[in-house]
Design brief:
Elements lengths: L1 H19 L17 H13 L10 H20 L6 H24 L5 H22 L4 H10 L6 H10 L24
Helix pairs in contact: 3-4, 3-5, 3-7, 4-7
């Protein structure tokens, strides 16, 4: 009995440091393979599609994804011009790059299913979004470029849903607030 206890403690002592070790500072994920419920996804999609898009954003999913990708890539390009970028700036660029990869993959996956007119609309939307950054990228004053980098407020929530819909070939209309069980403010309706 004593030998088994010693053996168990020894095994724990050898395995525990690796099992309990943390690779980085910050939050520790204790749940794995956590996925969003279908109802939560439907609610987020409904809110995203009911929220008006910024001026100049295309309404169709495929061109919108191209527009979103170009905005993120332009923001990253602006950040890469900064010699004063700090850890937060670099993290924003890293996360933006992951988002841009997701958008580009959705565009690649969905390209064959788009009409020539839709693909042309996507090219136009991408060029217009890229042009928004060109003037900022050309600024010689790094402080002004840095301010512009810090002022980018992100993308409409519809971008991620449009990318998912393009990637997964979802052609049905987006869910409405009512169908998702939400009121006009996006609050769940008591049932």
């Amino acid at each position: 009995m004593h030998l088994r206890l010693v053996a168990s403690l020894l095994a724990f002592a050898l395995v525990a440091p690796a099992a309990l070790a943390q690779d980085q500072d910050g939050p520790i994920a204790t749940a794995t393979e956590v996925t969003e419920s279908a109802d939560a996804l439907r609610a987020r999609e409904a809110i995203a599609y009911e929220t008006p898009l910024p001026r100049g954003a295309p309404d169709q999913d495929y061109p919108l994804v191209a527009w979103c990708a170009a905005l993120v890539e332009g923001h990253i390009a602006l950040g890469q011009t900064l010699t004063t970028a700090d850890d937060l700036d670099r993290d924003i660029m890293r996360l933006g790059a992951l988002e841009a990869i997701d958008f580009r993959e959705a565009l690649r996956t969905g390209a064959a299913r788009q009409t020539p007119a839709t693909r042309a609309g996507a090219e136009t939307a991408e060029a217009e979004a890229k042009a928004r950054w060109d003037a900022l990228l050309a600024l010689p004053d790094e402080a002004t470029r840095s301010q512009a980098f810090g002022l980018f407020f992100g993308l409409p929530g519809r971008c991620e849903h449009a990318a998912r819909r393009v990637r997964d070939n979802i052609t049905s209309p987006p869910v409405t607030l009512e169908a998702a069980g939400l009121d006009e403010m996006g609050v769940p309706v008591a049932q």
